[in-house]
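Researcher: Let's do a round of design. I'm pasting the structure tokens now; please hold your answer until I've finished.
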């Protein structure tokens, strides 16, 4: 078989483009047909395999037809601005106009002007003053609302009217409706109802409603204002406010959001009442008072802004004036303390292409997330990262200067788990095309590393010992020249680079070494690997990446596809340099996967550069449909080592792991398949010919259940470290009820890591969620040994959330957790 060099049809060009994208290391988005978002029960598109799906909009598809809409005339004008220049048209079966000014109308009376339509049994109309008085089965329609009553009087020029007796009203720009003893149209944009109700539920079937002495509807602001108001569920009042505002459309409005109630093992019963402040079109705020029965009151706040010129930001603060909870024997004692959590994200344009990016995260103590923020809706977090950078760039370069600092928020482990602070840090990346096939580039970085000295007091409080870590500066220069030769069905990409890394260590560098995988103080009578305060390393890195692309037309299960076959060879040469005298600041061995087969280094960071005389052989095949959508992708590859891998990380002692004696890497295989929009399968497998054992196995299955449900199953195995089964589902029992669940089981530990069960109910105007999550606490989550026996090894959290549709945005805190635990949740 020879490479295809002829002119190819469109779908084959798509196949070639996809293959070239894979070879260059860029992932392309895959498109598929899904339904679009709407408010009639449809949901936004969420392709299978998506990690984050759009939120489900409020759906009124289950609402009954509204009786008031029976007299609604869709042919009426929606433009109220032309009322002043429009004539009033009058129809009636009988007309008495003896004085030629006041008309007495009876029998199917209709008065129409622009967007206004009044219908009644009888009416009196003054053509000079435009006063009217309608009686008997009165129905009024305008651009924004419908009103029905026994008696309506008013003036058409002033857009004023007064409705009495059996008043019913319906908002046309929303589902708001209610009844009142009296309704008054103050002008074209304002109406007031006395002794009234308001709800977005079906007329006559109010699951919930607001009852007020008066309710003012302001169409300009999109707000309703109820005075002396109570909110009821059924016939039971549960909330009273002397002054209560609520939205009547979908615009941002000041007011209360959905309340949240929950119960957690660490904080007790919790209730939150968020209040949203629409301060201006370009900035807003949310205040969230909360009460924890085991810990006391908390005030949460969020402020967001967006200004012209490229200034955006968000500030979050949680503040606990006095913690009443216990510590259960953890390292940090916080009872009686003031506690807080601060988060700040911002982007500020400075000049031309330069901006200041800020990401600040800080907790008052290492127990904070364990006690308050890690129960239900946050994943396990052991370290908080704060960064500030000035960044800039253009089409051929980008640069940044700033720093990163870290805070330990694991209550069971010492601060040694923190990465080294990188302050300051500067990076410069250059990619300059010399001509259409040759480019010059550089990846450069200069960093000052530090990790503070600290005293470590174990949980039992018996022993205390000090740990010190080496500090130093590192300069990493990585210039390269790369050529790109390619045709319609082949590519060859040689690359030649030189990597130079130099250090400036602190003054007592000779007292540090490798201990427990850390570059820390060795103490007396131990040998340090550091023989120089200014060690360095320089070496060339050469590689050639090449591949062919074959394609053919084929069919599977009666569907036509374009199949590609893409063999690929990657040769890498890096001479050996002894690097045992270099510290380990931010370098770790990366896990082998398919993309690592084509990487010039198996280590992250710049402290180690692998030696290599390697040849990677791999092949990929794909199936693309007539629209260019990749329905199947299968890859297989392996690295052959012509020389030993001599550059290794230190082991748990002060020695370095010996060089490998492998002649080849694991066989690496992966398969992704999505033959339709309902099923998706993804697998990865690694088998070692050296140990003749499986090193990695991953299987993931996802199935969409109609449009409201999803089913996930996965199995993950890494030899000696991990073997877990996971299953999650959103199962639609009916159009109103959905069951939620997820479960993760560790075969190595023979126990459940996490289990979640919940239920969602969605009706015409009310939605609710109840979720229970049981999970191992932070000390069991991969951050170190289990906590002592005085601390429960498991936590449990229950959260309840109810949303009254049309009463403002939901403040849901359940949804982020469900999106994390249930892939594809909407």
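Researcher: That's everything. Go ahead.
Model: Designed sequence:
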């Amino acid at each position: 078989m020879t490479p295809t060099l002829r002119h190819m049809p469109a779908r084959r060009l798509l196949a070639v483009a996809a293959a070239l994208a894979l070879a260059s290391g860029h992932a392309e988005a895959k498109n598929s047909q899904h339904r679009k978002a709407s408010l009639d029960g449809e949901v936004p598109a969420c392709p299978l395999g998506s990690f984050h799906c759009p939120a489900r909009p409020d759906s009124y598809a289950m609402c009954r037809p509204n009786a008031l809409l029976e007299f609604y005339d869709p042919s009426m004008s929606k433009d109220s601005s032309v009322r002043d220049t429009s004539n009033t048209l009058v129809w009636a079966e009988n007309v008495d106009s003896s004085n030629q000014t006041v008309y007495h109308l009876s029998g199917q009376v209709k008065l129409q002007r622009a967007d206004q339509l009044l219908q009644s049994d009888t009416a009196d109309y003054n053509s000079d003053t435009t006063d009217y008085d309608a009686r008997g089965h009165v129905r009024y329609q305008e651009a924004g609302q419908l009103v029905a009553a026994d008696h309506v009087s008013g003036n058409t020029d002033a857009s004023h009217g007064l409705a009495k007796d059996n008043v019913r009203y319906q908002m046309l720009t929303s589902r708001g409706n209610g009844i009142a003893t009296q309704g008054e149209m103050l002008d074209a944009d304002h109406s007031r109802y006395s002794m009234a109700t308001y709800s977005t539920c079906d007329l006559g079937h109010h699951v919930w409603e607001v009852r007020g002495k008066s309710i003012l509807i302001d169409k300009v602001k999109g707000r309703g204002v109820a005075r002396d108001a109570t909110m009821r569920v059924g016939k039971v009042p549960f909330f009273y406010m002397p002054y209560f505002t609520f939205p009547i459309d979908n615009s941002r409005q000041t007011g209360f959001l959905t309340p949240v109630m929950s119960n957690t093992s660490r904080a007790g019963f919790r209730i939150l009442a968020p209040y949203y402040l629409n301060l201006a079109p370009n900035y807003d705020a949310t205040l969230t008072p909360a009460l924890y029965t085991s810990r006391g009151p908390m005030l949460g706040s969020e402020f967001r802004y967006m200004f012209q010129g490229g200034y955006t930001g968000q500030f979050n603060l949680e503040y606990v004036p006095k913690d009443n909870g216990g510590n259960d024997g953890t390292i940090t004692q916080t009872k009686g303390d003031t506690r807080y959590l601060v988060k700040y994200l911002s982007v500020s344009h400075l000049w031309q292409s330069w901006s200041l990016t800020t990401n600040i995260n800080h907790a008052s103590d290492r127990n904070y997330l364990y006690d308050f923020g890690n129960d239900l809706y946050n994943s396990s977090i052991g370290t908080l990262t704060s960064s500030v950078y000035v960044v800039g760039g253009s089409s051929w370069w980008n640069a940044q200067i700033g720093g990163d600092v870290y805070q330990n928020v694991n209550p069971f482990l010492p601060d040694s788990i923190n990465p080294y602070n990188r302050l300051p840090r500067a990076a410069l990346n250059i990619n300059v095309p010399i001509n259409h096939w040759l480019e010059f580039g550089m990846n450069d970085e200069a960093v000052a590393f530090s990790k503070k000295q600290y005293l470590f007091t174990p949980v039992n409080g018996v022993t205390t010992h000090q740990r010190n870590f080496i500090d130093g500066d590192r300069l990493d220069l990585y210039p390269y020249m790369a050529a790109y030769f390619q045709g319609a069905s082949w590519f060859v990409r040689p690359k030649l680079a030189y990597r130079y890394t130099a250090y400036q260590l602190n003054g007592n560098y000779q007292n540090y070494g490798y201990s427990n995988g850390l570059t820390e103080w060795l103490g007396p009578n131990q040998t340090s690997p550091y023989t120089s305060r200014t060690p360095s390393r320089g070496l060339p890195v050469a590689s050639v990446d090449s591949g062919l692309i074959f394609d053919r037309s084929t069919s599977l299960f009666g569907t036509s596809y374009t199949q590609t076959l893409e063999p690929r060879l990657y040769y890498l040469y890096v001479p050996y340099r002894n690097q045992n005298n270099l510290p380990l600041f931010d370098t770790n061995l990366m896990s082998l996967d398919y993309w690592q087969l084509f990487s010039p280094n198996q280590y992250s960071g710049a402290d180690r550069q692998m030696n290599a005389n390697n040849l990677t052989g791999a092949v990929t095949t794909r199936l693309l449909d007539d629209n260019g959508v990749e329905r199947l992708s299968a890859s297989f590859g392996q690295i052959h080592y012509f020389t030993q891998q001599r550059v290794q990380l230190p082991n748990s002692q002060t020695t370095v792991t010996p060089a490998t004696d492998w002649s080849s890497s694991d066989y690496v295989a992966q398969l992704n398949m999505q033959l339709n929009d309902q099923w998706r399968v993804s697998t990865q497998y690694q088998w070692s010919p050296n140990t003749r054992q499986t090193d990695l196995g991953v299987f993931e299955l996802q199935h969409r259940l109609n449009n409201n449900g999803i089913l996930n199953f996965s199995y993950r195995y890494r030899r000696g470290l991990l073997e877990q089964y996971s299953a999650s589902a959103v199962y639609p029992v009916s159009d109103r009820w959905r069951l939620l669940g997820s479960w993760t089981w560790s075969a190595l530990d023979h126990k459940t890591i996490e289990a979640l069960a919940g239920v969602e109910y969605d009706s015409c105007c009310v939605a609710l969620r109840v979720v229970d999550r049981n999970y191992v606490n932070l000390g069991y989550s991969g951050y170190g040994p289990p906590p002592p026996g005085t601390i429960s090894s498991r936590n449990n959290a229950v959260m309840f959330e109810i949303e009254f549709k049309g009463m403002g945005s939901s403040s849901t805190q359940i949804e982020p957790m469900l999106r994390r635990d249930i892939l594809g949740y909407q």
